[in-house]
């Protein structure tokens, strides 16, 4: 029993799964789980080769003007006829040490999309790409530089969203890489601020252009004073140190209005649109450009 609990804890830690449970099963559970990871590694590599991954894009809007600030790229996996969401495979991909293979694919695809929009005359100021903390090592800065060059994308049009995590393999090396990318002109935002390990200390130690306010605070802000005051404090703090704030998961006009009153700079969420496939987001961008903004009815 204790052995099972230990194996579950180890597996949850490795995969960052929120819960793991089982009762009966083979004694060598570690072996079974390792082989499950091996299978995933093979499937992801094959999936990348076979073109099973796709990027969806969610618009981010400027609060003041309603203009599109940019889009966030969110990966999806067409696996055996089902559309698999990132929370169901990214943690395992990370645990299996494959972040960089998937991450580079995401980066390339996002830059390729920007280049395609440029050719088609569709305006999109920037694309934000989510990066696993595990990718902050080795020659990442050089690899990003090569991809930008390959597609002729100015570095200022790429934003990297970092989710704070306890698992940055080498924080010193990670710091050097983010500084190097920053010098190249790539922007950084701190994702899911207020949840997990993200904190004000982290903000001080890296050059973040934007902070993304975790959607749990947005979801609670109308009924919960703690959430609203937390948002007010973070927004005021960010204003005073010249960091933009982007609210995540805005679903209602009331939330949007409350965020506007708190002085939040930008937002994204189902109220505007869920993440969309390439064709749908292209249509969205064309319309937004023609109207010089996105009308959201309050
Ligand atoms: P995230 O970067 O915080 O992305 C926002 C998530 O919130 C997305 O989930 C999005 O679909 C969802 N969302 C957006 N608006 C709303 C809303 O109004 N209400 C609600 N309830 N949800 C909303 P998704 O696409 O399932 O992505 C989940 C997470 O997976 C992302 O969280 C990000 O951390 C990770 N992820 C996604 N794509 C990648 C990737 O290419 N690489 C890495 N390393 N991680 C990725
Ligand atoms: Mg994100
Ligand atoms: Mg987020």
Notes on the structure:
With 298 residues, the chain is α/β, with parallel strands linked by helices. 48% of the residues lie in helices and 18% in strands. It is built from 11 helices and 9 strands. It has an 8-stranded mixed barrel with strand order 1-2-4-5-6-7-8-9, surrounded by 5 helices. Helix 4 packs parallel to helix 5 and helix 5 runs parallel beside helix 6. The longest helix is centred in the first third of the chain and has 22 residues. The chain is globular. The termini are far apart. 32% of the residues are buried. The protein binds ligand C2E and magnesium ion (2 copies). Ligand C2E binds next to strand 2, strand 4, strand 5 and strand 6. The site of one magnesium ion has 4 residues, from strand 6.
Concise structural overview:
By secondary structure, this protein is an alpha/beta fold.
Strand order of the largest sheet: 1-2-4-5-6-7-8-9
Structural class: alpha/beta
Instruction: Report how far apart the termini are.
Output: 55 Å
What is the number of helical segments per DSSP (H or I, 4+ residues)?
A: 11
**Mean pLDDT across every amino acid position:** 88
Secondary-structure blueprint of this entry?
Layout: H1 2-15, H2 29-50, E1 53-62, E2 68-79, E3 82-84, H3 90-95, H4 99-120, E4 127-131, H5 140-151, E5 158-163, H6 171-184, E6 187-193, H7 200-205, E7 210-213, H8 215-220, H9 225-240, E8 244-247, H10 253-262, E9 266-267, H11 278-291
The structure holds ligand C2E and magnesium ion (MG) (2 copies).
